[in-house]
Design a protein that fits this description.
Two copies of one chain form a homodimer.
Chain A: H1 2-10, E1 15-20, H2 25-31, E2 39-44, E3 50-53, H3 58-64, E4 68-71, H4 77-84, H5 87-99, E5 102-106, H6 111-118, E6 122-126, H7 129-135, H8 139-164, E7 167-168, E8 174-176, E9 179-180, H9 183-194, E10 199-200, E11 205-208, E12 229-233, E13 236-237, E14 246-250, H10 257-276, H11 283-296, E15 312-314, E16 321-325, E17 337-340, E18 343-346, E19 350-353, E20 356-360, E21 365-367
Parallel strand pairs in A: 1-5, 3-4, 5-6
Antiparallel strand pairs in A: 1-2, 2-3, 7-8, 8-9, 10-13, 11-12, 12-14, 15-16, 17-20, 18-19, 20-21
Helix pairs in contact in A: 4-5, 8-9, 10-11
Pfam family, one (chains A, B): Peptidase_M24
EC number (chains A, B): 3.4.11.18
Family (chains A, B): Belongs to the peptidase M24B family.
Chain lengths: ~375, ~375
């Protein structure tokens, strides 16, 4: 929390204030109390973090958070609603009364509420202090993410095994135990494998054929032999909220030659990137090295073709968080947990993506991902 | 979209601009393109809605949205990044170049980006136009929500059946097919029943005993006989994004007398509310009638005890949306889909909640929920 204290001193503010549900990862990180409805977190220049919750959440909040817990009633909200006849204005006054008149707020605060808060206090918008804190993981966080990735590999293995052990119908359709192998069925297999570990999948990508040329196409319907199948699986622990992230591209039987070539290039690009990762290098340098590598091998990016996304991203309480391994990626430091996921996409042909994750260490990169890279199964 | 056009005219703005992922329900409602990363939606005073997406999303966007699709590159972003050396500033200029200099934005826009946008354009913050549009459901939307509620009831029935058919160990623990009946196991049963219908559950509440005194306590571990079990299940369609919402309180064998009395009062409160629902009445009137009813029956709200939440809420692409049936609830109109969920909570004793949902019609309330109300199973 030193970074937040430093930001308060630097900006000459009394307190840092967030007003959001725990769907906001910053809120989950700072306050640790899980809600679908917004509550207030206050980190004062002196003293400890406090959450202000509705009475109905008081008992649960005391159980879940290490912060001080105050109810809206105890913080005077009912009287303020009487006085101002507007919940948002009353909430702004309650925050000012509790936290002070010089407030630091995250850039994610909704502009509507921020404007109301500005009518009662001096408001300074912080630019990403908590995101920077979150980008450097503690040993505990690293252990949690490793654990989710372990479950991810077990679940992905179930899916790969189903495809490997399926039969090919005369039209190329994959059949397993007399039923079609579809994107949906493979997702079900993955979800079922994750559930006992209290992990869930959402929006798992199981795309096939030319659909794989769209990096975020989830995929639907029948899977076919001799075509690329992109499996991008990023489960989340329902207990602690941390994500893992892995992509594999496979084909039941040999795919067309272009895909085999693309696979080799993508694989080499990923290893090239992994060897470059160390503290002090920038995400941009690593990303650009991969761009150059692809260009040297004839894979030039144009419009929707080629290497059309960034090389990687941080992973934690959000599936996409800092640091970024992209054109604009900053300096990496120990504790950053990042993905390396080069990909090549050609509409009408298909796509290949391979993604590993790991942590930036004092002198390199400790990869979490142990899953084999094998195109043809 | 007439409401949005009216808002633009009234505020003298050129275009309405949202910059968010489809996790923002407004974005899903307006643009209908599913993403985990933010993209831009522009609704101009004249013409049609446009989305601006990254090149990697272009093909998928064209497939999923009925809006015009423009890539960031085509909208000039790369040159603007060169010029301003800052992605956020460049994005603001791109929006201005495309949409005009007088922009209407939602109150949910992050204040950080809103401030950047304000450096290049006149920005007016809209207060909930799209939320009001979303609160009035079309016949198609009503059909989708009804369908999810149907699946919800099938899934909840599986859970109730497991509890009903379980055996009671000497210490009161429920056992089904030789294994303990836990909150987690009941959630698994519900999830498995929903999955073939492409619906998912998240944060389903299966709480037992004194934990039920915390309305949002998810519940964990062993379930017991002769104690209230609160089951609050709100699945979402993975296909269209609409939610349903239902709560039942059951007990395997008779619970303590207070719970039986509370159940009768909560049930009566819900029916009282259902009879009041019609166009023209305010959510506050209905909520206050339930507060009065509870008070007349000796259930006075104090701190964390009694009826400590609002009576109900709208349901749609968000589980909690407009209109509100609470102290501050406004006038209801035909097409509003709302829950009625009175509850009573006493720490050390337990809680009871019953929740039905339905749509406000031209002359009353059409309930979607057909699930029986039966405390003792």
């Amino acid at each position: 929390m030193r970074d937040l204290a430093d930001a308060l001193t630097e900006k000459n503010c009394d307190a840092y204030v967030v007003y959001d549900s725990s769907a906001n990862a910053d809120m989950r990180y700072l306050a640790g109390f899980l809600t679908s409805d917004p509550y207030i977190y206050i980190y004062p220049k002196e003293g400890e973090g406090t959450v202000i919750v509705s009475s109905m959440e008081e008992l649960r909040a005391r159980r879940e958070t290490t912060c001080n817990v105050v109810t809206r009633s105890a913080a005077g909200l009912p009287d303020l609603i009487q006085e101002y006849q507007n919940i948002e204005t009353a909430t702004a006054h309650m925050i000012k009364n509790f936290a002070g008149t010089k407030l630091l707020v995250p850039q994610s605060m909704p502009v509507g509420f921020a404007q109301t808060l500005m009518t009662v206090a001096d408001v300074t918008v912080d630019r990403g202090t908590v995101a920077l804190m979150r980008a450097v993981k503690s040993a505990d966080e690293i252990a949690l993410i490793r654990e989710v990735q372990k479950r991810n590999e077990e679940a992905t293995r179930c899916a790969v095994d189903m495809i490997r052990n399926s039969e090919t119908r005369v039209d190329g359709a994959l059949i397993f135990e007399d039923e079609p192998v579809t994107s949906e069925r493979v997702r079900d297999v993955i979800a079922a494998a994750l559930r006992p570990w209290k992990c869930e999948e959402r929006d798992t990508i199981i795309s096939c054929g030319t659909d794989t040329a769209m990096p975020h196409c989830l995929g639907t319907g029948q899977l076919y032999a001799n075509q690329p199948i992109v499996m991008d699986v990023f489960p989340r622990s329902l207990v602690n909220g941390y994500f893992a992230d892995m992509t594999r591209t496979i084909s039941k039987g040999a795919p067309r030659e272009e895909i085999i070539q693309m696979y080799a290039a993508v694989h080499e690009a990923k290893e090239l990137a992994a060897e470059m990762i160390r503290p002090g290098i920038s995400g941009a340098e690593v990303h650009n090295a991969v761009v150059d590598f692809f260009a040297e091998n004839g894979y030039v990016t144009a419009g929707s073709s080629g290497f059309i996304h960034s090389l990687g991203h941080g992973v934690g309480l959000e599936i996409h968080e800092g640091p970024s391994l992209s054109m604009s990626g900053g300096i990496l430091e120990p504790g950053n947990v990042v993905t390396l996921e080069p990909g090549l996409y050609y509409p009408g042909v298909g796509g290949v993506r391979l993604e590993d994750m790991g942590v930036v260490t004092e002198n390199g990169f400790d990869r979490f991902t142990n899953f084999e890279k094998q195109l043809i199964v």
